[in-house]
Amino acid sequence: ETMFIFWNQFEEEEHNPNFWYVKGKEDLHASLSMKPNMHQAKNLILFLGELKAPVSGIFNMKEMYKQRMFPLLSSFPFDPNKLVMNSMASDTVYSSHTICKYNGLGLVLYFPGKSVGIVSTEHVQHASLAASYSHTPERGWYSDKELPSEAVTGGCKDIAYQLVHNTDINVILGGGRQYMFPKETIDPEYSTVTGSRQDKTSLVDVWLRSRNNAKYVWNKNDFDAVKEHNTDYLMGLFEPKDTRYELECDPSMDPSLTELVEKAIKILCRNSKGFYLFVEDNGRIDHGHHAGLWNLTGELDTLSVVTANHSHVFSFGGYSSSGNPVLAEDGKSFTNALYGNGPGYQIVNVTRPDMNVTISSSDEYLQQAAVPLDSETHGSEDVTIFVKGPMAHLFHGVQEQSYIPHAMAYAACLEPYTDCLLEDYGICTQFSLVVLMLRTV
Questions:
Q1: How much is the average pLDDT of 428-440?
Q2: For residue 303, what are the β-bridge partners?
Q3: Looking at the structure, do residues 351 and 221 belong to the same domain, yes or no?
Q4: I need a surface site. Which of 138, 227, 264, 288 has the fewest CB within 10 A?
Q5: Residue 248: what pLDDT?
């Protein structure tokens, strides 16, 4: 129940009907006073989550509306070969302006003159992020260990290699230590884990040697010690593979997503020409809630786009009071949050188990599912996009997913819209913190 309870928990003043009357008038006045920001976007932030239907429970809607980050556009994640989009194809679409096949990756990360950062709660070689910097036909080629012999013979390079050699990304934060170090290298945090590379090469060392003012960190203490004012490049890899779930994190070792994004922005904004930051929260948020993005920028010159790359087969239903399970016709309780398929299938002999708060509040609890599968699948419905900043009015109606990178490129006068003739605001982007609260399953 904790996944959606914020919809029903009102503050004391919100129980007064007059509160909503006054709020409606204030919101209408604010809407009437809104004018399109026609300036060129100096900075671009794309926050993607592998989420379920953002409007129906993923985002903390109160915070989104407080920050005037309205859902302006609904996007349809489309793959010409599949009914349901996967992360790799979806993220390629967001970066490359075009529809992509289900397992396609493309070399697409071009932001001339701008600093670039990627932040992930998975490993940074994961297909979702690799879509932004590599051209690899297989999403699982994380290191050279995974390359088949024919790929090696054909001169193919693994994704970790391409991350270091193909691009010039200023900030790389997430998991994925294992794929960057030789198999002879023992992991600094887990003595039973080693690197996976067979070429005896430390890609971290290669990355550090080829860049000035570059730093590599693998734990929170070293991460916190990084001074943004004299750091041009930062690589932080905090787990051998994916980062830990929020409930499993060790606060003394693992920076939060909020801290990662904040550090990234402070480093990237040193570039007077602006930056592009791609944040991917790809399923590493556990049941409940998560503080997602602390935005150290202002909406006058920064276009912030918060959306999902696809949905999941997840739904809310029932008429229970806040925090209480629903009672079904069979006399057994069930949670409001249910899956269409997945490992939570619990029907045995045409009966299902009863439910209570103790069971459903467990960290190991699996939401009940209608169809038994080893892993829950993605969904195919539209996802909502929350936008604020320069040219945010371009995001409207229902569009194909490929429209989004076009609108972002136009707002920043990037290829293929370098002739967009938008006014360059030319201001510094040091503003107060804005908190965007995200919620997912």
A1: 34
A2: 44
A3: no
A4: 227
A5: 81
Q: Could you give the CA distance from residue 186 to residue 188 in angstroms, rounded to a whole number?
A: 6
CATH of the domain at 226: 3.40.720.10
Model confidence at 72: pLDDT above 50:
yes
Weakest mean pLDDT among 111-120, 237-246, 392-401: 392-401
In a domain, 22, yes or no: no
Question: DSSP letter at 186?
Answer: B
In a domain, 348, yes or no: yes
- Among residues 211, 220, 136, 200, which one has the least CA distance to residue 169? 211
Task: Provide the domain limits for residue 197.
Answer: 37-313+378-412
At residue 43, what is the residue type?
Answer: N
Q: Any idea what DSSP says for residue 402?
A: T
β-bridge mates for residue 386, sequence order: 71, 306
| Exposure of 4 in the CB half-sphere (CA atoms within 13 A) | 22
Same structural domain, 80 and 212: yes
Q: How many CA atoms lie within 13 A of 260 on its CB side?
A: 33
Backbone dihedral region for residue 18 (phi beyond 0: left; psi -120 to 50: alpha; all else: beta) = alpha
State in Å, rounded, how far the first CA of the chain is from the last one.
11
Rounded Cα distance, 383 and 105, in Å: 22
Copy the structure tokens of residue 149: 């012999």
In the numeric block, the tokens 């967001």 are attached to 94
How is 61-95 classified by DSSP, letter by letter? HHHHHHTT-EEEEEEE--BTTBSS--HHHHHHHHH
What would the mean pLDDT of 77-86 be, rounded to a whole number? Answer: 48
- pLDDT for the residue 410: 93
Q: Are residues 216 and 244 in the same domain?
A: yes
Q: Are residues 123 and 140 in the same domain?
A: yes
- Annotated binding-site residues for Mg(2+) read 126, 128, 280
Of 33, 74, 75, 87, which one is the catalytic site residue?
87
Residues that constitute the known binding site for Zn(2+): 286, 290, 310, 378
pLDDT band at 71 (very low <50, low <70, confident <90, very high): low
What is the tens place of the pLDDT at every residue in 171-219?
Answer: 999 999 999 999 999 999 999 999 999 999 999 999 999 999 999 999 9
- Is residue 350 a part of any domain in this protein? yes
